[in-house]
Records
---
Amino acid sequence: MNEVKKEMNNFIQKIINDDSDSGKWNNRVHTRFPPEPNGYLHIGHAKSICLNFGIAEKNKGTCNLRFDDTNPVKEEEEYVQSIIEDVKWLGFDWEDRLFYASDYFEQLYEFAIQLIQDGSAYICDLSGDEIRNMRGSLNEPGLESPHRTRSVEENLELFHKMKNGEFGNGEKVLRAKINMAHPNLNMRDPVMYRILHAKHHRTGNDWCIYPMYDWAHGLEDSIERITHSICTLEFEDHRPLYDWYLNQLDIYHPQQIEFARLNLNFTMMSKRKLKQLVDENHVSGWDDPRMPTISGLRRRGYTPKAIRNFAEDVGVTKRDSIIDVVRLENALREDLNKIAPRVMGVLDPLKVVITNYPEDKTELLKAVNNPENPDAGKRDIPFSKELYIEQSDFMEDPPRKFFRLGPGREVRLRYAYFITCNEVIKNKSGEIIELHCTYDSETKGGSAPDGRKVKGTLHWVSVNDAIDAEVRLYDRLFLNENPGETDDFLANLNPESCKTQANAKLESSLSNPENITYQFERNGYFIKDEKDSMNGKLVFNRAVSLRDSWAKFFKNNGK
RNA sequence: UGGGGCGUAGUAUAAUGGUAGUACACCUGGUUUUGGUCCAGGCAGUUGGGGUUCGACUCCCUACGCCCCAGCCA
């Protein structure tokens, strides 16, 4: 047993190991990720993507991307494109195996005819209501449809007519003839085809009958020679039907395996409700940085690696669980800490005048680009008489343990000098608008030759060289830990989920930022918003803050 | 009440008959020119009850708890 296998030993991998030992699939592993293009992918899908592509990769197998596009009234091409982009961005490659359920409509139709000919399927004229009423209940068996005994010939003829558009929506369905008294409701003569006179995003008006999920899915898996068909827990009840169809047809038969979908606290994963947030403009779109969508996370500044690490980290089981969203944030911090270039940006500026610094002087100081990675090198940052520091880095009446700036206190400006605050300038309403400080020219670079220590180190930006930017600070979208469970999830929207710092000042190296996530030292990780940065206006999104033990201490101990 | 699943620290997740481990969270301390990172230490768990066994998270029985299912959605 090698290291890799030890790390990756979730229950699905164990099944694969067993299959490998028994030679069940001739050592083949072939999975698929089968999204329905009826919305954007979210972090929950990411778990499934990482599982399916990941398990194929780890076992030298392959994974297909397959659109389960069997319901034209909900599906759109826009979603297809976004899904392709998102899976690609996560770093997975389906090579030439991009498939659509709609590519198999003809074959599915032929299979249905086969079932009819075997006497295992029939056309039912009952209405939707009637079918539901006759299905029975959890405790009572259902009633058989009066059309259950139609002849094969009649069924064949009616099915042709269905296909040819001779009936209206809902007039007839094709049903499997199984058992109306089955304890599993899914087996009580489930619908295989329904009539939908709707334009499909790929097949146009070629079809007016569309296959139901249960009928279609196993066949899609079978056609693609999938070995392990991995889906979520709620389909456990459908497995007997999945198996029944494939057994009736006596064709290649993949194994369906169910795992628990991802749940995150303070996060809502329902596609329907996410769509509502978008449609009702509670967020700016599917890619709003507060959305749990892949596109939202991307715009927020998440990296594919962080998401993949997270998916690996939370594991795969059959237990319903709710993962703490801070683990997703931690996965991001972990990745970004190693790779993000450090820069200085003042979000909420307070002007500082160094009274003993020459009026017109600007000097360039060396700053480390990434202390975690010496290869990232250094850069020059301009220093001058007037600077900005963070409002929150000054307190007129500081509490114990506050080791930033206060009247008479000395702190270090990162990579620059020690400064001491001598005077606090206020406006008429008593607000602090400016600090007058003196610097110690001996401390250039940030250390004192006399060995003198300061506790605080502040980030800063030179006034003359500062770049203006709008910075958006995001917080969780919902206040409630389980927003999906409440009746009115909109009532739980966090009114402060996006705070804007309109007057942020950034160091000059950020005049033309790359499309990567930076660390603003002592603040957090930020990425330029490519959508909203326009005509000279820079907008940055905060992906996640840095861990802040001072904020925690302050919160726990009051003042 | 029928059927299908699931119960291990606060939250997740390992251990498949042999020392209950890991991560995050939480608490201490150390290092630090980011109150970041990093390092060291600590707290804390097998749903209850029986049984089998030298030995049970693991096997058996039973009780309890939680999740899913009555779309012509997926």
Note: The mean pLDDT of chain A is 96.
---
Amino acid sequence: MPWLPPQSRPFFSELVELIQKRNLPKGKAFHGRLIRNGQASSCLYIANCIVNLYAKCGDLVKARIVFDRIPCRDVVSWNCLINGCSQLGSSSSLGVVMELLKGMMVENVLPNAHTFAGVFSGGLDVTGGRQAQAVAFKIGCFGDVFVGSSLLNLYCKSSIVSDARKVFDEMSERNLVSFAAMISGYASQRLAKEALDLFGLVRIEEDESGNEFIFTSVLSGLTVPELLDTGKQIHCLALKYGLLCFSAVGNAIVTMYSKCGSSDNALQMFTLFDDKNSITWSAMVTGLAQSGDFEKALKLFSSMHFAGISPSEFTFVGVINACSDLSAIEEGKQIHGYSLKLGFESQMYVMTALVDMYAKCSSISDARKGFDYLLEPDIVLWTSMIGGYVTNGDNEAALNLYCRMQMEGIMPNELTMASVLKACSSLAALEQGKQIHGRTIKYGLGLEIPVGSALSTMYAKCGSLEDGNKVFRRMVTKDIISWNAMISGLSHNGHGNEALQLFEEMLYEGTKPDYITFVNVLSACSHMGLVDRGWSYFNMMFDKFGLVPKVEHYACMVDILSRAGKLKEAKEFIESATIDHGMCLWRILLSACRNYRDFELGAYAGEKLMELGSQESSAYVLLSSVYASLGRKEDVERVRRLMKLRGVSKEPGCSWIELKSRVHVFVVGDELHPQIGDIRAEIRRLWKHIMDEEDCLPTFELASAYSFAV
DNA sequence: ATAGGGTTAG
């Protein structure tokens, strides 16, 4: 049967050429001619070629029609169709590929190595891959290098490197292709050591120096500064073996230098590059942006135009990120315009970068416009938009969008859940948070760092400390953020001792605290009135961990001292502070002086604030009340006039609470709540209770809150 | 006649 009659030979060679060129229009015309002169179905060779022609050109419908008309299809006919589907690579194609594999076996056509190589290179579905793997094993195609390489590549692409390695180890024959696939699998998982080990093995086992594929793969895994020297050595090897003429190798070297923190080497490599292509430019622009050289990145981006290379979607993503980090919205908008001009308006990655940029630049409505433009946003774009709302403080919008996403049946990922949980934390929306917790379990997301941390924070912030702690204890790996979240949760809910205990436990486990940890620890000391421990933690920051205390830490210290009534000590501490502390320290002292009725010191602190030009209304209100207590009426007037003169006004206070799925909002001075009468009566009752209590002197804040409320 | 690997991105 596989025989090509002499009269078909000229047609055959012309067909092969059309297939190689993927020339569908000419191919169609040629197919028409073959039908007219009766050659189309003269032999299986020609028929298969025609199936292959349509399949390679992506016209699977036509390929299938021709295929269905072949009277006795052989394994090649099926393989052509399968490969066509594989190369389309759409999400639905894997199902089709599996159907075809089944179909051929039903017709008693035995698959061969070509079949499986095609099947494995088609989709990214692991389940399908495993099924087909079993069939390949049974039929005895498993030993083939092509089959093994494409299967291990499938596992790599699905991020299951361990399974890929199993296939790799079990292969009876390996070649450079199998090595390249395996190395790149490790590299993409950032397992540089494993990738380098295999790279070394290539030279022993294959007795070869490798090829351009091996080099690009191993280079792409070198992404941290510690590997810079290794990267340099591999660069030298590439030079020695004459592989620098492959632009992919050069591109990988440029990226390697950027990621390993050597922009200089990257730029040098880039400058010496003979024929820079779009990838080279993108790699360099992105590299500069990621190293924090945003201006250089933007400059290089504009010179690209003059070099006659037009930016790709990759370049845009890189340069838009530079704008986000710079908060350079004007440049960002221009680049957005440029990307529209080049027709990237529907590119998912570009749009995600734009949404991030607008969100970071506080233009959340522009971010939303971009998001709405894409009809089928993928999960990363959904997550960026939701996360954008969260960073801009519009937590309701974040949750609304998340609900819409759920209704559209989009499966969230870890980062989506972490964002919506953060929204729940900020809103203190416990019920919603619990539901989302349920979802994470349903989706099998576990308690890995983004979700686990967000969950324990959410419970802690919503006052459900036990649940927060439960989640925290079940997390297998905790990072500093998880610890901070739990410590702060305990501290904020009045469990200062437990907060400090947890901090000690953290130190014991060898986790290094950061600035935020110390803010939480010091504020716990403040709530507990622990002056000595406060001092010891404050000193520990620099002495033990090399952390220079920031203004927040000074503020906590002032708070500790003044709450404990050590007002003079607090004043001396502020005046000896070596940092540019601004006004907040005096503001804390002033309020403490008011509460402790040390009006002289209060006036001193208040006048400091007046000198520094405070814009906080509370500073003026507090100081004038201090002067009122001292009976200095003219000073009261002066402070009030100053407040007016400087245009300081009071932001109305606002608070809310969620009860039985309803959110109750209160703004200072409003009468809107339907039960406002009952609420006021209850506040009066509580106030009376406080006043009746012995030794219970309400603070100034409490007293003013009371006077506002009733 | 049919097959496998690499470089840039959210």
Note: Residues 212 and 243 of chain A are 6 Å apart (CA to CA).
